[in-house]
Description:
Strand order of the largest sheet of chain B: 5-4-3-6-8-7
Helix content of chain B: 40-55%
Number of domains of chain A: 2
Radius of gyration of chain B: 25 Å
Largest sheet of chain A: 5 strands, parallel
CATH topology of the domain at 43-166 and 196-353 in chain B: Rossmann fold
Order of helices and strands of chain A: EEHEHEHEHHHEHHEHHHEEHHH
Number of strands of chain A: 9
Mean pLDDT of chain A: 83
Strand order of the largest sheet of chain A: 5-4-3-6-7
CATH superfamily of the domain at 43-166 and 196-353 in chain B: HUPs
Number of helices of chain A: 14
Strand content of chain B: 5-15%
Structural class of chain A: alpha/beta
Low-confidence stretches of chain A: none
Shape of chain B: globular
Distance between the termini of chain B: 47 Å
Shape of chain A: globular
Oligomer: heterodimer
CATH architecture of the domain at 43-166 and 196-353 in chain B: 3-Layer(aba) Sandwich
Radius of gyration of chain A: 21 Å
Largest interface: A-B, 69 and 72 residues
Low-confidence stretches of chain B: 183-194, 359-364, 401-448, 503-508
Helix content of chain A: 40-55%
Number of strands of chain B: 8
Mean pLDDT of chain B: 78
Strand content of chain A: 5-15%
Number of helices of chain B: 17
CATH architecture of the largest domain in chain A: 3-Layer(aba) Sandwich
CATH class of the domain at 43-166 and 196-353 in chain B: Alpha Beta
CATH topology of the largest domain in chain A: Rossmann fold
CATH superfamily of the largest domain in chain A: HUPs
Amino acid sequence: MPAQCSSCTEKRAVLKRPKTGHSLCKECFFWAFEEEVHQTIVAAELFKSGESVGIAASGGKDSTVLAHVMKLLNERYNYGLELMLISVDEGITGYRDDSLETVKRNQQQYELPLKIVSYEELYGWTMDAIVKQVGLKNNCTFCGVFRRQALDRGAVMLKVDKICTGHNADDVAETVLMNVLRGDIARLRRCTAISTSSEGEGVVPRCKPLKYAYEKEIVLYAYFKKLDYFSTECIYSPNAYRGYARTFLKDLESIRPSTIIDIIHSGENLSVREGVKMPVQGTCSRCGYISSQALCKSCVLLEGLNRGLPKLGIGKHHRLHDKILSQQPLTDKEERKLKPVDF
Amino acid sequence: MCQVDEEYHDQLERTDVPSASQKCVKCKEVSAAVVIRAGDAYCRGCFKEYFIHKFRAMLGKNRIIFPGEKVLLAVSGGPSSCSMLSQVQEGLSQKAHKKLRFFPGIVYIDEGGAVGQPTEERQRTVSELEMVFKATGFPFHIVPLEQVLDLPGSVVVTALPPSQQPPSAYKAAVDRFNQICGSDCLAPPEQQQKKSPPDVHESHTQLLQQLIGSAKTLTAREDLLNTLRQHLLVHTARTEGYSKLMLGDSCTRLAIKLLTSISLGRGAQLAQDTGFSDSRYGDIISVRPMRDYSAKEIAHYNRMFNVPSVVIPSLETKTSEKASIQRLTESFVTKLQTDFPSTVSTIYRTSEKLQTACRSSSTDDHSDRCLLCLCVLDTAVEKASAFQATLISEQLSQTLSLGSGSPRQNSGPVKPTSAASAVQCCSLSGGEDCGRATSGGSCCSSAKETIDLKSLLCYSCQLTIRDMSSVDHLPQYIMSEAKRRQRRSQMRDEISEFLLNDGDEGND
């Protein structure tokens, strides 16, 4: 007995929404999904008319769907935005070069301008070279920190007012869990915010329009809309700590599907006691980027890579920052601590 | 490596693996008997000192328990609460270094009826525990969970807290107590006669089982059981004249509870659920003195110093890993702890840095608090919040109720009406969606006076109720309090234009 769509009650239902469990037909699902993203954008006042917005595109499902939905909503509701695609090439052979092809295809399909920034040209290091020096653990730190700056630099080159990323509900929930597991109170407070603050030089505010969209619904949307995307995992990801949080979240979702939004709700309502030390935002003394320490993280990481001391950015070494700034050589003991682990 | 600010020392040097053949790291004389953490091997004497000291320090640092107070110890029979009991005994014994100064009582809640234990087993467990309690000499109360069906409505109402005492009052109270009592006054005010546990009617047990059974998922069942247990504990404390309640949650248990609470949507109430003191009931304050002890330390201590404990099956005994959120979190944290030994302590330290998100501290207006868990409501529909997103999703996935027009032409912002509209729409469409819609369960079964329970509950209690097939089995005191609050809010709506309010009550 075919089920009827619970929204229009006319057509036959072809899918069951992971978020609410309702059975919907294709068109009603598209409309519900797009409308939710629209409501999120409107309620959080993410964009102003006339702004130029850079869509961070990696070629994966989140950014492909994001580009599609942003273009659609921009036309349907007359946001008045100028959309562009920004992509980052980390230099991971077999992974990034394939996904970049998808981004180029997206560019042609949606007729949006595209800018690709690569680690090679910005920092002089590809991820492959970094992993060779650092090893298989802790390399996600390098990639993540570099990518954030790369996106900002790309945005400045394109002169956009805002960046939007394809972070979905599962990502935000995972981040909340990970921050609890790592005891990172400062990030715990900020990670559920839908957009970052817009102060500081060279910093482009970024937002997450897909914050309340489940990953499974994004895949459903892409599948039924026949959107083309690149779906392999990064080859270096299996050893990441985030994997634990992700498995846990997937198991939670199988027990109770609303858990993902419940975790985001918890994260939004957390409140931190007064008197807990919080980092203060300043600028990096070397490159001028925003930083809570004297040197920003990517300068520290780069310094470590260039000097052959890849563990310089992993862990707490604030006392060494002054030494690095003044180009003093480090003592033998300090150097030994920072060298890579030999296997 | 799993903490953000962790010092990353040289990892590959072969450090001496501490074993029991080493010397104790504290006194350095006697050979070690137990290894607690990676670097700490203690001998028996030093371990006992360390253990006892932690308990005292925890009570002394948070000056919440005043001298001469009556404190109710909630003992479940498990290792942590029995260890807490033995610590209190130690602390009150004559030869203690600085004696504890309160009067303890013990309460044990017999949950065999909810778990489905046969009567003989229940009686056996109860008599085992009775022996343990009698040996301590403290007054004890054995309360079957079935009593929760007869509770008065005042349980779910926050009582007025005792007058706020300035911090200096603690020291003054201690001095006064020492003057009056000296060192040998510790007989509790009234001697407790031997009270046999009340008989449990078979019908009550069945009602209780029906109630627990009406929750469809194990997660909801455990949550419900927790709530009922808390209510019964508070009621016992109130009727027997205790002003404080001591719970025996260990560090491991609290870390699991923190993650579980986040997964259940209790982010706003985390500080009360896992903090040292919990004052949501107003007059009864719950404290958790065992929150600094890991489960491993407690197990070592119990074994080395023969602390008796009883194994009692619970709802999640022998269930698979993914049977409920609580069970899954427990196995996740314990597995992670083996790979990353600082997991539990990191999570514990996170919980220390949280506080209650208090929007209105007034306890007179009860409609600000959740009906079941008595925490401040976190369901104000703010712009761009997860809660608003769920309401919008519910609306968009079903036929909209009358009055909103055709959904496709509506291009303005959709105002999410409260969850009551979801109730309406189910009855409008003739209830055919109820079987599928997750929110429909309760509305169709209650006939005339549709109690909109959802508006009286916090986010996570709403989820629990949503998992119940019918709310008719809820105990009388909950339903009558719900009706009373609803009538009161209707009254307030009628006269709202004449009320002079200084500030938003937070409940529209």
